[in-house]
Amino acid sequence: MRETLAVFRREVKSLFVGPIPYIVIALFGGIACWYVIHTRIFFMVRQAKLDALFGFLPQLFAFFIPAIAMRAWSEEIRGETIEPLLTSPVRAWHAVLGKFLAGLVVVALCLVATGSLAVTTATLGDLDGGAVTAGYVGALLMGGAYLSVGLWLSSKTRNQIVAFLLGLVICFFWSMIENLSASAASGTFGALLADLSLSGRFRSIALGVFDLRDVVFFLSVTAFFLYLNVESIENRRNA
Amino acid sequence: MTNPTLVRRKSPVALSLLTTAALLGALVVLNVVLSRVVVRADLTEDRLYSLTDATRNVVGKLTDPCRVVVYWGEKIPGTAEPVRRHLRGLLEEYVAASDGRIVVQWPTMDENGTKDADEKGIPEAQFGVMDANERSIVKAHAGLAILYEDKAETIPNLVQMQEDESGFTLATDLEYQLTSRIHKLTRTSTTLVGLVTETTAPRFDFQSPRNRPTDNFMGLAQLLDETYGNGLRRSVDLEQPVAADLTVLVVLAPKEWNEKKAFHLEQFLLRGGKVLLLLNPMDWEALQGRTELKKSGLEDWLKSFGVEVAPGVVADYDPPAQCAAVLPTGDIRRYPSWIRLLAANLDGRNPALTGLGGVPMYFASSLVVDAKAQEAAGRTFTTLATTSDAAFVRQDLAGLTQFDGPEGKALGKQTMMVSLQGKFTSYWKGKPSPAEPPPPPADAAMGDAPPAPATPADAPMGDAPPAPATPADAAMGDAPAMTEAPAATEAPAMEGAPPAPPAMETDGAKGPEGEPGDPAKPAAPPARLDEGSGMLVVLGDADLVSDQFAGGSRDVTAGATMYINKLGGFALVPNLVGWLSGGDELLGLRARGSTDRKMDEISKEKAQTLQHVNVFGLPVLVFLLGLVVYFVRKHRS
Questions:
Q1: What's the mean pLDDT in B293-304?
Q2: R_g of chain A, CA atoms, integer Å
Q3: Residue B351, Cβ neighbours under 10 Å: how many?
Q4: From the list B30, B330, B619, which residue is nearest A30 (CB)?
Q5: pLDDT for B610-627, tens place per residue?
Q6: How far is B76 from A182, CA to CA, in rounded Å?
Q7: pLDDT classification of A36: cutoffs 50, 70, 90
Q8: Which of residues 78-107 of A touch B (CB under 8 A)?
Q9: How big is the A-B interface in CB pairs under 8 Å?
Q10: Is the pLDDT of residue B69 over 90?
Q11: Residue of A125, A213, A234 lying closest to B35 (CB–CB)
Q12: Cys staple from B274: which of A195, B337, B535, B538, with CB 3.0 to 4.6 Å?
C-alpha cells in the first residue's frame, strides 16, 4: 500500500506540474456545461435534473479519458524512465494502481468542473440530491473503467498519440455498444450487448439506483484491464 | 527436439495468457451469478424505484398465490435492457414483499409465448430503432399479465420512451398499475363508488349502431375501475334515488340539473353518503365558443349549505402556480388562467393530498364558504386547497386567453376546494319533495285516480311507504329526521306498510355495462330525510380529470401550446375518493412521481449570465490555476 501511495504521489505531482490536466479539466467542464445548457435548452426546459449531463458523460469520457491516460506509461517507455521503475522494489501492480488512482483524481476533478451546473440547478430548483450523488458516483465508476482501458493501451506503446487514438476508438465503441444493440441486435444477443454496455449500466445508476450488478460490472471491467496492465508491465520487466 | 530456451521464453507468456483467461472467466462467472441477485439502493429522494408502503401493504395481505407473467419479446431492442433489469428488480421486490406469494415468470417468447400473450390481450408494442441510415420500427410484446385465482388483469405496455427520446424507460406509473391491478384482483371490501356524469348522445355510426352515450370522464372512470372493479357504478342516474349501498358519489361537471336530481343527491348526503362534487362552471368547450356556458343548477342548493361558487375564472399570478405555454417563437410564458395548486397550498394533514405536487386546474372557479353558517349548522368545514396569495378572479371572460400580468388587479388567496362534514338540513325541508308528482288536478281529486306508476322508480317519493333505516342511516351518528310529507299522499301509504328493503335505484342496479335491473323485484325508495349527517367535498373545476385534459397539449391562444400534466388531477381525485370511502390502500401511491422539480423562472439576462458562469467560469479558473502553476514552476527553475 505504501508503495502504491508513493507511486500515486509521484504521479499526481508529475501530472499537475504540466499543463495537460488543467486543460483537460477546463475543457471537460466547459464542453459538458455548454452541451447541457445550449443543446438541451436547459433554462427553457427548466427541469431541475442533470439527466442531460449524465446522458452525455459516456461520450465525453470516451474522448477525454484516453487523453488523461495516454501518457501514463507511453511517456515512461519513451523517456526510458520506466527502467528504474521496473528495477525498483515496487511491484508492477503497485505502480499500476498508483497511476490508476492518480488518473482517477483527474477524472474526479473533471466531474467537479461540472459541479457548477449542479449548484445552479439546486439554487434554482429542487434538485434530487440522491439521484445526483448516484450519478456522480456512477460516473466515477464508469470513468475508472475507461481509465483502466486507457492505461493498458498506454502500456502497450511508446507513442502517446497511438495510445490516445486506440483508447478513443475502444472507449467510444464501448460507449456506443448500447446503440449497436438497439439497431443491429435483439433478443439474447442484443441483451448481451446491452449488458456489456458501459453507458447502459451507467444510465441505470444515474437514475438514482445503485444496483450491485452494475457496480460489480464496472469493478470487474476495471479490475480486468488493470490486470492486463500489470501483465503488460510484468512482461516488459521479464523481457 | 524442443529448444529449452524457447520453452523458458514461452512459458511466462503462456502463464500470463492462462491467468488472464482465468481472471476473465472468474469475472464473467461472478457477473452471471450476481445477475440473479437483486441488491439495490434507491438513492432518489422520493424512493422512486422502491416499493411504497401502500404496495407493501397490498401485497403483504395476499393469502393465495398470485402469478405475474412477463411477456418480453425477443425483438425488443437491446437499448431496453436496463428497463428489463429495472423491471426484474421491481418484481423481485414484489416477490419479497409478498413473502413469496407472488410468483414471477418470464416465458420464452417463442410461438407459444407469443400466442399466450395474444390470448391474454397483450398487443405488440412498437419500438423505434435507429439503423445506420434510417429509423425503423420493430414490434414485440412488452407487457405482463397478473393471474389470481381464475381472474386475470394485464398491463399491455411496460416500456415507454424517455422524455428526451434518448432511450427507453419503465412506465412511470408502473408500480401504481401493478399494485392497483393486484388490489383489484384480491380486494374483498365492499366499497361502492358511483359516478354521476353528463353524457352526450353518440353520433350514429353504421358500423356500431348501438354505441352508448359517452361522457368526458372515461379516463377517470377507468382509473377508478382499476381500484374498485365491480364496486364502481359508472353512470348513476340521479333522476332516481341513489342506491343505499353506495358509499361515495362522485359528481362530475353537473349542468342544468333539475331539482329532482339535486334532491336525490341531497338525500344520499343526508343518509350519511359522501359526495365529491366537481363543479365546472367554466368549461373548455364553452370558453372555446362551441357550447354555451351553463349553470350547474346546484347553486341555490349549495348556497343553503353556505357554499357559493364565485362567478368568473381564477387567475394566479405567482409563476410557480401557473401552467406554462410555449409560444410560436419558442419562448415560454406562464398562463395565469391555468393554475397549479402548489403542495404548500394543499391541506397537508389530509392523506389524500400528501405527496401531491402541483395540481393543475383549467379555467377554475373559486369557492366562497360562509364559516359562520357552517358553525351554526354544526358542520366542520376544512379548506383543502387554495391558490397562492397572488390570485385574482377574472370576471371579464373576453380577456381570458391573454397572457396578462397582475398589474392593477386586487390579488389574494382563493379557495379552490373545501370539505363540509356534519349535519346537513335539507334544502327542501318544509317544502314538497321535488321527486313527488305535482298535486293532482281538481277533477282527479274528485275521484279520478291518477294512473299507477309503471315502475317503482317512477313512483313519486311521497307515495312511498316509509322505509326502515338503511345501512347508511345506521352508520349515521344522528337520528334522521323524517319528513312530514303532505298528508294527502302520505296517510294511506303509512298505514300498516310492511318494512321495505333499502331502495335500489334503477340505474344503481345496473352493472358496469348499464344493463337494466330486474323489473320483477321493485325496491321501495328510501324515506325522505330532512336532516342528516354526511360529507361533501366541493371543487371549483372538473376539467382536471376530464378526457380533454388527460395529457398531450392544447392551443389556448395565438398558437401558444400548453402541455398538460396529467399526474396532478388524476392522482388527486382518485385519492379523494379513496379518502372519502375510508379505505383506500393506494393512497400515496398515485402521487408517486408527481413531485414537481421545476427550476424557478429567471429573466433572459440572468439566464445568459448563468450560462456564461457555467460554461466559462470554472473552466477559466482551472485554466488560470494551471498558468499560475506553470509560471511559479518556471520562476523557481
A1: 89
A2: 18
A3: 13
A4: B619
A5: 888 888 888 888 888 888
A6: 8
A7: confident
A8: none
A9: 218
A10: yes
A11: A213
A12: B535
pLDDT at B404 over 90: no
In a mutational test of the A interface, the residue from B17, B19, B28, B81 whose CB has the highest number of chain A CBs within 10 Å is: B81
> Mean pLDDT over residues B394-398, rounded?
77
Any idea which of A102-111, B214-223, B486-495, B532-541 has the lowest mean pLDDT? B486-495
CATH number for the region B191-202+210-429+532-581 comes to: 3.40.50
Helix (H, G, I), strand (E, B) or coil at B28: helix
Q: Count other C-beta atoms under 10 Å from residue A196's C-beta.
A: 18
Determine contact, residues A217/B31, Cβ cutoff 8 Å: yes
The angle subtended at Cα A119 by Cα A116 and Cα A124, nearest 5°, is 125
Q: Which three cell numbers stand for residue B493?
A: 301509504
Write the single-letter amino acid at B635: H
Dist. CA B30–CA A215, nearest whole Å: 12
Tell me whether residues B79 and A194 touch, CB distance under 8 A.
Answer: yes
Which three-class secondary structure string do you get for B162-227? Answer: CCCCCCEEECCCHHHHHHHHHHHHHCCCCCCEEEECCCECCCCCCCCCCCCCECCCHHHHHHHHHH
Chain B residues in contact with A23 (beta carbon < 8 A): 623, 626
> In chain A, what residues touch B84 (CB-CB under 8 Å)?
191
Q: Which of A110-119, B309-318, B420-429, B443-452 has the lowest mean pLDDT?
A: B443-452
Residues 210-239 of A with CB under 8 A from B: 210-213, 216-217, 220, 223-224, 227-228, 231, 234-235, 238
CB atoms within 10 A of CB B57: 17
Beta carbons within 8 Å of B250's beta carbon, 6+ residues apart: B193, B194, B195, B196, B224, B276, B278, B573, B577
Within the 42-81 window of chain B, which residues sit less than 8 Å (CB to CB) from chain A? Answer: 42-46, 48-49, 74-81
**Chain-centre distance of CA B34, in angstroms?**
39
Q: What is the maximum span of chain A, computed from C-alpha positions, in angstroms? A: 60
Nearest by Cα to B285 from B543, B540, B539: B543
The number of distinct structural domains making up chain A is: 1
- Assigned C-alpha cell, A154: 498506454
Question: Does B78 contact A117 at a Cβ distance shorter than 8 Å?
Answer: no
Question: Does B31 lie at the interface with A, CB-CB under 8 angstroms?
Answer: yes
Contact B597 A131 (CB under 8 A): no
- Mean pLDDT over all residues of chain B? 76
Judged by DSSP in three states, B418 sits in: strand
- Full domain range(s) for residue A18: 2-238
Q: Which helix (H) or strand (E) holds B369?
A: strand B367-369
* Tally of CB atoms within 10 A around B514: 13
User: Which region among A212-226, B14-28, B518-532, B593-607 has the lowest average model confidence (pLDDT)?
Assistant: B518-532
Closest chain B CA to residue A121: B599
Instruction: Give the position of cell 377574472.
Output: B394
The larger pLDDT score, comparing residue B511 to residue A167, is at A167
Note whether A213 contacts B31, CB cutoff 8 Å.
yes
Closest approach of chain A CAs to the CA of B616, in angstroms? 6
Distance CA B113, CA B141 (A): 10
Is B200 in CB contact (< 8 Å) with chain A? no
Does residue A55 sit at the B interface (CB-CB below 8 Å)? yes
Q: What is the pLDDT of residue B584?
A: 59
Is the confidence at residue A61, as pLDDT, over 90? yes
Minimum CA–CA partner of B330 in chain A: A44
| Chain A residues closer than 8 Å to B595 by CB | 126
Query: CB distance B89–A211 less than 8 Å?
Result: yes
* B53-185 homologous superfamily: Glutaredoxin (3.40.30.10)
For the segment A223-238, what is each residue's pLDDT rounded down to a tens digit?
Answer: 999 999 998 888 877 7
- Taking the CB of residue B55, how many other CB atoms lie within 10 A of it? 27
- Residue extents of the structural domains in chain B: 53-185, 191-202+210-429+532-581, 607-637
Q: Touching check for B602 and chain A: CB below 8 Å?
A: yes
